[in-house]
Write a structure and sequence with these properties.
The chain has about 300 residues and is an alpha+beta fold. It folds into two domains: about 10-130, Four Helix Bundle (Hemerythrin (Met), subunit A); about 145-290, Chemotaxis protein chec, CATH 3.40.1550.10. It has helices at about 15-40, 45-75, 80-100, 105-130, 145-160, 200-210, 225-245; strands at about 165-170, 175-190, 190-200, 255-265, 275-280, 285-290. A six-stranded antiparallel β-sheet has the order 1-5-6-3-2-4. The protein is globular, with a radius of gyration of 20 Å.
Length: about 300
């Protein structure tokens, strides 16, 4: 058990049961943080896995308690709050699988960082509004975005590039996108739309080969042609999503694409005002994040 440094009185929402559960979550996160940063993770592997299993199950039961309170209070943003919970349950389960497959200090740190950041932001931006019955900030740029991204990804990956999708999970933006190659597409018009794509090495090589007929040989240092082709992948995905999303016929946009290697983070992106989908395929993994810049 930690000494309570992560828990802050400002996290109280005004309901004793929920506040006690939040504090328990912070204490368990702190215990995992101590192991991840100061102890030998491998020697404490059993304790780590027990804490992670507790966090997974306790988070689910906590969400059930919180949602029951919202129903009792007839909370105005109940459905949106449940959607956010479902996204994070997928995220925490994904991380449990990653820790089981790659038990390392780095993976533990990412797990702790994701959970700690999400919980603190979620309490501040969402949970504190329950008792006061205040709506979660609306986001008018997300109607159907998740379904559109799923549909476009299935069309392009499966139908166009013959990449079979085995699993799709809607998660929360962790503060960063993972992949061997990360492509960022910013589309500026009446609003600024941001898309991030995290391609695993196998996925990047497969798509590059099937589009260009060439081999992506130096993935750690792609040349100008390879960089342009990979950026174009992001443009293709983004244009398909945006074309289906916008109903007003606006076509005056400026496009900017960039490439990053291994990991890309952006502290300006609000974890709740974004859509993140993780695709598992027969050719590796793909993460797609969409948001409106500045929201």
């Amino acid at each position: 058990m930690g000494d309570g440094n992560l828990w802050k009185e400002e996290y109280k929402i005004g309901n004793q049961k929920i506040d006690d559960q939040h504090r328990e979550l912070f204490d368990k996160i702190e215990a995992l943080l101590v192991i991840a940063t100061t102890a030998d993770a491998e020697e404490n592997r059993r304790e780590c896995l027990e804490i992670i299993e507790f966090l997974v199950s306790y988070t689910v039961s906590h969400f059930e308690t919180e949602e029951a309170l919202q129903r009792e209070l007839h909370y105005v943003s109940y459905e949106e709050h449940v959607r956010i919970h479902e996204q994070f349950k997928n995220t925490i389960r994904t991380y449990r699988e990653r820790v089981e497959n790659d038990f390392s200090r780095e993976t533990l740190k990412k797990f702790v960082g994701t959970l700690l950041t999400w919980l603190a932001v979620h309490i501040r931006d969402c949970d504190k509004k329950i008792v006061r019955n205040e709506p979660i900030d609306s986001n008018t740029g997300f109607e159907g975005a998740e379904d559109l991204i799923r549909r476009v990804a299935r069309q392009l990956l499966s139908d166009t590039y013959s990449v079979e999708i085995s699993d799709i999970r809607t998660c929360v933006y962790k503060g960063y996108i993972e992949g061997k190659v990360i492509v960022r597409t910013i589309i500026s018009g009446d609003k600024n739309y941001v898309f991030l794509y995290g391609f695993s090495e196998e996925m990047a090589k497969t798509l590059y080969s099937r589009i260009s007929g060439l081999e992506l040989r130096e993935i750690d240092a792609p040349d100008a042609i390879e960089r342009s082709a990979l950026i174009e992948l992001g443009d293709i995905f983004s244009s398909h999503v945006l074309a289906n999303m916008l109903k007003n016929g606006h076509t005056q946009f400026e496009w900017k694409g960039d490439i990053f290697m291994e990991e890309y983070s952006d502290s300006c992106i609000n974890i709740h005002n974004s859509v993140l989908l993780e695709f598992t395929t027969d050719c590796g993994r793909l993460e797609i994040m969409y948001c409106l810049a500045g929201d």
